[in-house]
Amino acid sequence: MNKPKIVVLTGAGISKESGIPTFRDMGGWWKQYRIEEVASPEAWRRNPQLVLDFYNLRRRQLKEVEPNAAHKALAELERHFPVHIITQNVDDLHERAGSHQVLHLHGELRKVRSERNPSLVYPWEDDLHLGDLAEDGAQLRPHIVWFGEPVPAIEEAAQVVSDADVMLIVGTSMQVYPAAGLVHYLPSHARVFYVDPHPAPLHIPHPLTTVAATAVEGVPPLVKKWIDEGIG
Fold first, then answer.
1. What is the value of pTM for the model shown?
2. Hey, what domains does the chain have and what are their CATH numbers?
3. Which among 104, 142, 112 has a CA at the least distance from the CA of 11?
4. Could you give the CA distance from residue 94 to residue 85 in angstroms, rounded to a whole number?
5. Helix, strand, coil share of the chain (percent; to 5)
6. What is the tens place of the pLDDT at every residue in 56-105?
7. What is the spatial distance between Cα 70 and Cα 221, in angstroms, rounded to a whole number?
8. β-pair partners for 169
């Protein structure tokens, strides 16, 4: 008997529990900015140094945190079932926890790319500066999908979802599109499990199990149950 294919959609809630601050939580002088002022093509054209400062800070913060119990549980789940993770997060905590099939919808904090050629992508650990150039001679920018930019990975994500048997949604308000629309690509037989402390109503034609809990509270016991008893 084939094991069910599980697709996990994760959002900021799972990373916040590792200590990664949301923009509103960053405090200090960032409070005077809106997120669009540091995470949009217009912001990059207007004040690239401010944008670089913002992402350099986030890259430094990422080095100070570790995967939490929810990340680790999802990695353990992969040892028992075929699991694909689709994440809206730009951190690498899923990978550091041990997950291997991770698709980042909104880019990756530890990568940079040419501002001229999006296919020229490089790993990057330290601060990024004006004057750091790609091999095509263009300025390097964060490898992040900014507000107002298309989401290149969304078609691949839809394909992954289209043959899933189970979707587990963790730590996302299901209000950010196109990611929130992925649930509509599920096949008719699929089941959906939604773990969030304040779950939004989901209007979907699939059996839905809602767990009103944080990722760390809700994911490990659910994963243990699936491993021990199967997905009933």
1. 0.94
2. 1-20+67-106+151-232 (3.40.50.1220), 21-64+111-144 (3.30.1600.10)
3. 104
4. 8
5. 35, 20, 45
6. 999 999 999 999 999 999 999 999 999 999 999 999 999 999 999 999 99
7. 9
8. 9, 194
Task: Respond yes or no: is residue 106 known to be catalytic.
Answer: yes
Q: Which residues pair with 168 in a beta bridge?
A: 8, 193
Tens digits of residue pLDDT in 139-193: 999 999 999 999 999 999 999 999 999 999 999 988 888 888 999 999 999 999 9
User: Which of the residues 71, 106, 203, 206 is marked catalytic?
Assistant: 106
Nearest to 40 by CA among 29, 25, 32, 50: 50
| Order of strands, sheet of 6-10, starting from the edge strand that comes earlier in the sequence | 102-104, 83-87, 6-10, 166-170, 191-195, 208-211
Q: Is 69 helix (H, G, I), strand (E, B) or coil?
A: helix
Q: Which residue has the tokens 């529990």?
A: 17
Q: How confident is the model at residue 1 (pLDDT cuts 50, 70, 90)?
A: low
223 and 74 Cβ atoms separated by less than 8 Å? yes
- Distance between CA atoms of residues 121 and 62, nearest Å: 19
